Amino acid sequence: MRRAVPVGIGFLQKITKNGAKNFRDRRSENSSGQLALNCSNPLIFGRGKIVLEVKNLSVSIGGRQILDDLDLTVRDGEVAALMGPNGSGKSTLSHVLAGRKDDTVETGEVLLNGESLLNLEPDARAAKGLFLAFQYPVEIPGVATLTFLKAALNAQRKQRGQEEFSTPDFMKRVKALAGKLKISQDMLKRALNAGFSGGEKKRMEILQMALLEPAFAILDETDSGLDIDALRVVADGVNALRSPARGFLIITHYQRVLDYVVPDIVHVMAQGRIVRSGGKELAVELEKSGYRDYVAEPAVA
Amino acid sequence: MNADIIPARTPAEISLARTFDAFKAGLPGNMDVTKWREASFKAFKVSGLPHRRIEAWHYTDLRALMRDALPLASFPGAATIDALRAEFAAARVPRQRIVLVDGFFVPELSDGLPEGLKVRSLASALTEGRPDLIALLSSHDLAARDPIVSLNAALMQDGVVIEVAPSTVIAEPINLVHATASPTPAAHFSRSALILGAGASLRLAESRHIANRAQPVGAGQANACLIVSLGDGAKLAHTAMATGTAPAGVRLESVMVRIGARAKFDSFALVAGIGLVRRQMFVRFEGAESEALLSGVSLLGGREHADTTLLVEHVAPGCVSRETFKYILDEEATGVFQGKIHVAPGAQKTDGKMLCKAMLLSDMAAMNNKPELEIFADDVACGHGATCGGLDIDQLFYLQTRGLPFAQAEALLLEAFAGELVDGIGHEGLIKAYRREVSAWLSARHGPTAAPSRGLIA
Questions:
Q1: How far is B401 from chain A (nearest CA, A)?
Q2: Which fold, A30-288?
């Protein structure tokens, strides 16, 4: 395990030397993986600033209430796990945050770094630093993966008023990241997700996340359908991106992925709201006892 | 209402009859050709302009859509030809080319033609009246039984006859450039023929050039026939770019193909930016084990109307036909696809498939899809499919979550949709040229307020 809770003395000294206010300056160090992980521990740093704030969010789809007055806060540097039984509204939450149209927001507010998201188009949310790794990445036949990646990256940069990447610069970045995620050149030339295996699709999501460098990333059941090796590759990809300047919300059914990507906090969701929050040991407890305590008794016929 | 009543003649029909009477003495051809013209015009006169009560024209009511017939184009003058020569050089129109200006073959603009190719004007062929050539030029008409083909025979002014000697193989495309140069909108009737001897192989790339002096831009009426004859083992790859910026233009194209044994005909067409287009293809397999791949993309906006009507006749056994067409329809555009595969009793082991996919981007756009199979043999594999729909909202959402603004996401998906068929052309230079046309159409869709830069201001 990369992050052990009692932290060694030597490490604490290193932190003190860097100083907490240098958060962003140290992002470069995070690409090496190890240090970032430890920095994100709220026990050491106190709490980072809030990156995502969901307040009193109620959402319905086709007249059915899915999210019910939900509150959720994720801080910079924090990895929050969101667990809960089927139908509790986890995926809907991820879609609402990303800006899908078929969900009706009835009340509530969503803030990313203090800015309201709900009136923004999905592409504007992405440009502000939101990323959603899809549970089922969509196949786009006829659009070469590289073409898509470059279009996406440069569209975001353009929206932020940054200069677009030239093709050689872009290729350099993609190749470096693809290598780490065991994504072949051949796969980058193929149509996006078209005919990719489940594992390939999930690795492609992580590649996009690494390339787009979001401020806040939601991983919607990225672990589902992966074998142990693929899970490890994906988890390593996520861990490499952990940073004091980035928050994560990891939606999952299983504790297993949390052995690889250790969360700072675990939220349990049921019937459209967060019903319990705790440390990573909560995930272990859920794995043993299941969700029965959180599911409403079926009505007596 | 009784369908047998011949409706009152429309202004366009009256004007066409006047044109024929006034010009028939001056149109090229020997006595046999004159007789052929007379018979053709008589056939046209009986049917009139095709309308919705004629099955093959049900979705393209030309009688209602073509309000008037324009005067005939005249042979381009020396000044026009000089101007075009300069424009071709500036626009880098490829050298290996045959040029028709307002339907007239202009040898002075044609250039760089390779060995093994015999090129002459239709007018000279009609005047000379070589019986076998006249037979080849006219024999399709009867089979087509189409008023527009009849009208073409009656009024054909010129065109080009290309004969390719047996076993001639030409790798780089022969460009057939249709230039519009008439300073006032005019009607042109052209008929061209491409005859490939046994084992010959050629790529014919048809394109359009609108001269600077043509006013208003290309809003003429064109009725063009292309007659193709493929000898045994011959191969023809054909591309046609029917594009322009003529909301009032009318373009009627008939491609009539006869295929010998073990031959291959591959044809792709792009239709965009012309008011009313009807492309009809009559393909007949006369020899065994041949192949015909017909495909096309139509990009329509405004109140444009594009009709692709196909008749593929399997007479010989063991032939393969594929019809694959895609439409993107925006605003109030109308698309028509009629694909018919006919399998004659002896044409066993026929493999025929047709597919038409239409993407509707507006509630006001309409697509009429009519696949037809007529099978009189018992050992065949034939299939058809037709789809109409909008863009996949899950794909759009996915692309948007990655930062692509809606318009850009939409354009990317549409480009992929059309690009699939463009990529099948099989010639890198042509694929690039056609991809450029598709992108240009897609970026023009959203006009100068295109969304990609929206985020910068926000």
A1: 5
A2: Rossmann fold (3.40.50)
